[in-house]
Amino acid sequence: MQKFQKDMRIVANEPIGERYTLMSLTPNDGSRLPIINPGQFVNVECRESKSTFLRRPISVCDVDYEKNQLRLLIRKAGPGTESLCRLRDGQTVNIIYPLGSGFPEELLPERKVLLIGGGVGVAPLLYYGRRLGFRDIECRFVLGARSKDDLLLLEEFEKIAPVEVATEDGSTGTRGFVTDCPSLNDDKYDIWAVCGPMPMMKAVARIARSRDIECYVSLENKMACGLGACLCCVEKTVDGNQCTCTSGPVFNAATLLWD
Amino acid sequence: MKNPVMTASGTFGFGLEFCDLINIDRLGGIIVKGTTLEAREGNDYPRMAETPSGMLNAVGLQNPGVEVVANDILPFITQKFKTNIIVNISGRTPEDYAQVAERLAAVDGLEAIEVNISCPNVKQGGMAFGTTVDGASSVVRAVRETWPRTLIVKLSPNVTDITEIARAAEAEGADAVSLINTLLGMAIDVERRRPMLSTITGGLSGPAIRPVALRMVWQTAKAVKIPVIGLGGISDADSALQFIMAGASAIQIGTSNFTDPHTCENVLDGISDFCQRQGVKKISEIVGII
Hints:
The complex is a heterodimer of chains A (259) and B (290).
Chain A: E1 4-16, E2 20-27, E3 41-44, E4 56-64, E5 69-75, H1 79-86, E6 92-99, E7 112-118, H2 123-134, E8 138-145, H3 154-160, E9 163-167, E10 174-175, E11 191-195, H4 198-210, E12 214-218, E13 234-237, E14 240-243, E15 250-252
Parallel strand pairs in A: 7-8, 7-11, 8-9, 9-10, 11-12
Antiparallel strand pairs in A: 1-2, 1-6, 2-5, 3-4, 3-6, 4-5, 12-15, 13-14
Chain B: E1 5-7, E2 29-35, E3 48-51, E4 54-57, H1 66-80, E5 84-89, H2 94-105, E6 112-116, H3 127-130, H4 133-146, E7 150-154, H5 162-171, E8 176-179, E9 183-186, E10 188-189, E11 194-195, E12 201-205, H6 210-223, E13 228-230, H7 237-246, E14 250-253, H8 256-259, H9 263-278
Parallel strand pairs in B: 1-2, 1-14, 2-5, 5-6, 6-7, 7-8, 8-13, 13-14
Antiparallel strand pairs in B: 3-4, 4-12, 9-12, 10-11
Helix pairs in contact in B: 2-4, 4-5, 5-6, 6-7, 7-9
């Protein structure tokens, strides 16, 4: 897939609570967005951040080809992402995109997909669920968060497919983790797509493996280039060390040397 | 070489990773990832930590081995790109280096190799050779016997006196030296009370190391007669010109390729603007004027 480096104009940068922002971007030169697969990411320059140096890899949360916009859900994790949260409408950010592999889309119509997200990891699942909807593939979301206020974009998810929720404090949905939700404990869904904190992804992948369910996980290994050149973001796989930025970020969990 | 701007080993893959984003044919050369006799898996993750104005890496020479590079990759990229391809090589023993060089000597269109005696991220070989005169001499001598074309030796900054290593390389027949490789460094995640890198220490690169690199290039250029290739934190035309004035006949751009893949092209444009503005007809007029 061809990669591009583009200045993008911020159409909107809407804070969600204290710790997140939803940023909508459109190419500043008016060019059309390329085809972006769900699960792919963009590498964003943090020009306004004086103390950081590298770009920040951010999953594509959603794409609206009619408006020619893509959306990024960004968590304030440090000075780089904080600087992105401070940007205003009309400013530009430089991105390299679309990067990495995506979730599988060429599915037989009888397949049923469970999309399991935790924290800011829900981001790529929104776009994936939307695309599966276009293909009439049945899917359901299972979203986990610390508490009710940390559930991100819930209304948007509900527009696409049914949603099950788990919160650690029990403020809404199932009390506990996504692994406690009903859909992870029946065999209706035969593909699981997971994005969230590493312990959560490992726990989900373990259950999937024990029940012989095809499971895809989206990793967020630290990376420098995002292009497969620096070899920093490697993950151990059955095929040796693979770059998360090019062979991933989405991997079939069965290929990873976890546990 | 069409111009003095190259990419540094380990920061530009085999060029293919960047060819959607920049016009590689404009570059003076690309130096491909460190290649060893056998394929290597490199170090465990995490291999990278961002630091002020730079980054630490501990990749550890992950590469597919010289057979794959020579058979499958070099014939393709030497055809595809209209620029000089230079292969960076590494090994555990001088004989390893010599064998890699010998295999590469059979590759058409490969005019130069860069001998890495300065990788800080491998347990055996690498930097161990680059920190003593005897070690550096033994590697360069061995490679000189099997490699007939241009031989560049990449030097480690993790030494007391880089000029004596440069002189040793020159005495053994190196055609040029490139410097500096990364500086040995370290970072700690205090919340988790653990080192940021799986190897604890790693190689520091980026603008953070630029003044150190510039000083070493200046010292080395005064100490040897062979050309000096400068690198270490070059991110724009101004920093590239500083290295040239300090004595570098050519420069390499490394870590800045990660932050802006267009860095090399911007440096080329900036150097030509400078030359026009200052009435410089050839770069050689300003090499080593300090």
